[in-house]
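If it is no trouble, can you show me the amino acids of a protein and the tokens describing how it folds?
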Amino acid sequence: MGDCGVILVIDHDREFRELAEDVLGRMSHPTRAVASAEEAQALLDGERPALVVIEVELPELSGLAVLAQLLETFGEDLPVILTSAVRGTPLDRAAGLLLGADDYIVKPVDPTELVARVRRSLRRSGTGTGSAATNGNRRAVDASLSPREREILKLLAEGQTQKEIAAALVISLKTVGTHIQHVLAKLGVHSRAQAVARAYNDGLVRT
């Protein structure tokens, strides 16, 4: 799986697995998504992952039990993020964190938030620096963006709409749209959400 370790997603929801593989797969770590703890065990085959995203409501073995097993096997410093579509109360989140999770996300989760939280957990664990080639590509992309494009990308990452950006920068909607298209082309993506996810992945904007 490579020297940097795999980002492993364990979730019985196929749509979430596909989303996670799509947005997290652009990071410096390979990303794999499986539907059960059994599949995860077979995939890892004893190799330590870089980070694990676990659904609390797994159908056979609960996500909390999987969390405990992973921490016992790989150590308490393994970054694990729990996700849940139904157990989102403060008590649920506190319980997950007390059991050793690094973070707890309540679904539905925005792709940019998922990327930001994964990046933060990797950074805290010291495994999110990326390879020299990845860092070189990041610098090249950053250098290709004009100051105005970087400014607009930052505002997009903050959740501002095209109209709000135009008002903030005192430029026309059409000009903002042109800049956004240039940003998408330079980042090699096809949507604003993908651009923001790529920006977080490559450190072009900060959480």
